[in-house]
Amino acid sequence: MKNNIFILLLALMPLSLAAQSYTVYSVVGTARWYNGKSMVPLKARKVLAAQNKIQIGAESAVTVIDEKNAKMFSFTAPGTHTVADLIKSLKGTGKSLSKQYLSYVVKQLFSDDSEKMSHPNTYMQATATAYRSSSNDSLLLNQLGRHFAIDGLPIDKTVESTLVDPDTHPETDYDVEFELVDCTTGLPLDEHIAPNTSCYLRVMNHTTEPLYMNMLDIDRKGNKYLVLPMDAAATCAHLLVPAMSTVSFKKEPFIFGDEPSEETLLLMAVREPVDFSIVMDDIKTGGKSTMRVGLNRRFYQVK
Fold it and tell me: Of 1, 40, 136, 218, which residue is the least packed, with the fewest Cβ within 10 Å?
C-alpha cells in the first residue's frame, strides 16, 4: 500500500510542476514565446506555464511573478529556454514579495492605466496608490537635493544649476551607469553629438538587486526632458532592470535637436516604484527623509 502511495506521489509531481503559472510583469527589449509552432511577441500580463519556451534577445530582460509563492524572477540570458529552466538557473535568487506588495503589483499590472504611457514635459505626478504613496516620490527629490547640495546651496543657486555643473561630484547609493547608443551605427556616442542624432539608452545595473531606472535630460537653459515614458499608474514595470545585467531600451529611442546645445543626462535608479515625473518640478533641498538613489551623470554637446 505504501509503495502504491509513493508511486502515485511521483506521478503527481510533474503535474503539479506543469500546473505552475507565471505572470509576465515586464519585458524590456525583445522577447517572444512559442505559441504552438509560431513565435509571438511576449508582453506584460501574459500568463506562462513552466514548460512554455521563451526567446530572449540580447540586452533584454523578462520579469515574471509567481503569485503562488510570492516571488519575482528576472531573466536576461539570451536564447531560447523554458520558463522552468530559467528559474532553475537562478538558483533561488528570485525576489520575495510581501503580500501587500504582491497585491499592489498584480492590481496595477492589470490596470488600464499601466498601458497608458507619456513623456511628461511638465510636472505630472500620478495619483497615489495604497502602496506606492506620493511620499516616496518626495523622498526621491529629497535625495537628489542632498546629493547635489552636499555643502549647501547659495541663495542664488538651484539644485538644477549644480546638477549641470561639471565641477560638482555627486555621490551615488547604487553602482549603476549608462551610455547612449547611436540608432544607426549601434555604437556608443561620445560627448560630441551631431545634430538630429537618434539614439537609445543602454543601462548597466552592477548591483545584486533589481532597480527601477529612468533618465533626466537638462540643458543649460534649464529645460527638462524625461527620457523614458511613465505609465499613468506609475508601476514602473517597464523600467525594471534586473540585478547584474545590461539592458537596452531600444523601443524608446529619442533624438537630439538641430540647434547647438549642452545637455546633462542623469540616470536615476531606485529600489521601489516612484513617479519619476516628479523631477520635472523644481528639485528642493532641506527634506529630512530620503531614499537610496543610484546616480550616473554624463555631459554631451550637440554641435
Answer: 1
Sorted by sequence, the CB contacts under 8 Å of residue 214 that are 6+ apart come out as 226, 227, 228, 230, 236, 239, 267, 268, 276
Q: How far is CA 51 from CA 68, 89, 172, 205, 226, in A?
A: 17, 14, 40, 29, 39
User: What is d(CA 291, CA 144) in angstroms, rounded to the nearest whole number?
Assistant: 9
242-281: b or e for each residue (b if 16 or more CB lie within 10 Å)? beebbbbbbebebebeeeebebbbbbbbbbebbbbbbbbe
- Which H or E element spans position 18? helix 2-19
Cα distances (Å, whole numbers) of residue 115 to 91, 155, 233: 32, 42, 9
Distance between CA atoms of 202 and 176, rounded to whole angstroms? 11
The C-alpha cell of 33 is what? 514565446
N-terminal to C-terminal alpha carbon distance within the chain: 82
Q: CA-to-CA distance for 268 and 166, rounded, in angstroms? A: 17
Q: How many CA atoms lie within 13 A of 117 on its CB side?
A: 11
pLDDT digits (tens, 9 = 90+) for 6-58: 444 444 444 444 568 999 999 999 999 999 889 999 999 999 999 999 999 99
Other Cβ atoms less than 10 A from the Cβ of 74: the count is 24
Give 75-98 pLDDT, tens digit per residue.
999 999 999 999 999 987 888 988
| Sign of the Cα pseudo-torsion (62, 67, 69, 71, in order) | positive
Q: Which of the four pLDDT bands, split at 50, 70 and 90, describes residue 145?
A: confident
Supply φ then ψ for residue 80, to 5 degrees: -110, 125
Map residue 266 onto helix, strand or coil: strand
